[in-house]
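To: structure subgroup
Subject: Chain for Friday's discussion

All,

I'm putting the inputs and outputs inline so they're searchable in the archive.
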Amino acid sequence: MAKNLPSDFTDKILAKDRISFGDVRRLKRDILPDGIASRGQAEALLGLDRAVTKADAAWERWLVTTIVDFVVWAERPTGIVDEDTALWLAAALRAHAGTRAGKRGRLIAREIAEEAHAFENDALATLAGIGAASPRPRRNREPATEPALAAQL
């Protein structure tokens, strides 16, 4: 993380085990004013998100928006998510499926699906698979009987 984000910044957050509104403001204003410049920075932010137990609501909004902007608009070709980018992002987001960070990963994938103009090959399927990594168990339901169906009509 240290080479992609300033170590004093990450050390402070890890020591607090929390990302505050002030931390988000510092990221936006001083550390990444032009957004994410590399996959390494994106991975560092996602790693930071996984490492802390508490985060201000502004963190989720900023992180999701920043990752989506990087994947859709900074990665080339612009506006198109290629298969390599989708595979990289899926691996980065799947690292902690089922956790708070996993839910945030599914939100990022949904936002990218809405924002991108196009997807190459199986990129969309790869992103869609992020939520399917740990399916919820289904409850067994009794099959509907004919009288129950008639009552619904």
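Points worth raising on Friday:
The mean pLDDT is 82.
Helices lie at 7-16, 21-31, 39-51, 57-74, 83-94, 100-115, 123-128, 146-152.

D.
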